[in-house]
Every structure is written in structure tokens, then in C-alpha cells.
Amino acid sequence: MPEVMTRKIVTSVEEIFHEGGPRANTPLKRGSVMAVIQNPYAGSYIQDIQPFMEDLKPLGVAMAQKLLAALGVEAAQIEGYGKGSIVGTGGELEHGALWHAPGGYAMRDVLGGSKAIVPSTKKVGAAGVRLDVPVTHVDASYVRSHFDSIEVGLNDSPRADEMAVILVMTTGARIHNRAGGLDAKEIEGKDGLR
Predict the structure, then answer these.
(1) SS3 call for 186
(2) Cα(129)–Cα(160) distance, integer angstroms
(3) Does 162 reside within a domain?
(4) Residue 113 above 90 pLDDT?
(5) 108 backbone dihedrals φ, ψ, rounded to 5°
């Protein structure tokens, strides 16, 4: 199996106090962590790419731990999450799909077994491309107040032979959410949906 070669890791945290309405007493924290890694499959078609998922697992756990630490909260305070990948132009979309399991299971593990599927997106793009990573509630995907996205990207990444793997987390609902739907207080938490 190829070794994961990391060129850089970037972590970002934002604190949102308001979106034009009343100022929140506690700001919403939204964070992302992106690792820019060499794509071992760039430049050629390889049939069996699944072994690389195993190699990505330790990176996923390390990234989830790093992001949780950057947000400065306990795992129980994380209410939203998501994941994504950007594949450089020498690769293919399927290479980005290799992040689904390592990224999702890493966050579930670090956060203590969240129930909801970790939403995901991926794309192929040149250096500087941006990606909107979807966010949903960690225990119930239908909690509308937590539907969100976090835009990520770097001016020099990914290069053609790289891919960027991304995790995002939030500490709560959108500031001033008032679009209705299932409330976080009403979660049953049995099926990951409600």
C-alpha cells in the first residue's frame, strides 16, 4: 500500500457572533482542517485503489483530533460535521471517494460515535479551486437548523498529482436559524435521521 505523503495541513476556525440580527452570547464556531497529500494514483488508471483507504485512516483520526483541539471544545459540544476532497487534475473523481470511509469514521470515533451519516462532497480541480463542504447535525441528518456548508480551499492546492482531504465541524446551528423543521431538542437519535 502507498504511504500517505503530506505536503501541508491547514486548520481554520471562525467564530460567528451574528449575521445582522442580535448578537449571540456564545459564538457559533465553525472549523475546517485540510491535508494536502500526494495522490499515489495520479497520472494513470489503477483498478484496485481501495487499499489506500486503510492508509488514510490514521490521517483521518489525526485530522479530527487536530480540528477538535483547534475549536477548543469537548467532543460532546460538536453538533455539526462534514467531509470533502479535492482531487488535482492528474487524478480522477474516484480517488476523492477514497476519503469517504476514513474521514467519516475518524470523526465518529473522535466524537464518540455520532449517529448521522457524515455528509460529503468531492471534485476534481486545479490549484486554488474552492469546495463547499456540506454540514449536517452529528446525530440526526434531518435537523434543518444545522444544514450548512463551509467553503475551503488554498491558493496553491491541490497540484495535479495531489489531493486535498477535508474535515469540518461546527458547535451548533446557524446563527439566527429560523427555517423550522426538526429541532435538535427533538432528536431521537436512533437511525441517524431523526
Answers:
(1) helix
(2) 12
(3) yes
(4) no
(5) -60, -40
Which structural domain range is residue 162 located in? Answer: 6-14+28-171
How are beta strands 28-38 and 6-16 bridged, if at all?
antiparallel
State how far the alpha carbon of 96 is from the alpha carbons of 86, 171, 175, in Å: 6, 26, 31
User: Stretch 7-12: mean pLDDT, rounded?
Assistant: 98
| 189 in a structural domain | no
For the chain, how many structural domains are there in total?
1
All 3 cell numbers of residue 117? 451519516
Q: Which residues contact 115 (CB under 8 A, 6 or more apart)?
A: 138, 139, 140, 189, 190, 191, 192
d(CA 19, CA 21): 6
**Which amino acid is residue 104, in one-letter code?**
G
pLDDT by residue (tens digit) across 40-93? Answer: 999 999 999 999 999 999 999 999 999 999 999 999 999 999 999 999 999 999
Model confidence, pTM: 0.95
The contacts of residue 74 (CB under 8 Å, 6+ apart) are: none
Residue 100 lies in a domain: yes
**Cell output for 42:** 495520479
> For position 95, which CATH number holds?
3.30.1330.110
Is residue 22 in a domain? Answer: no
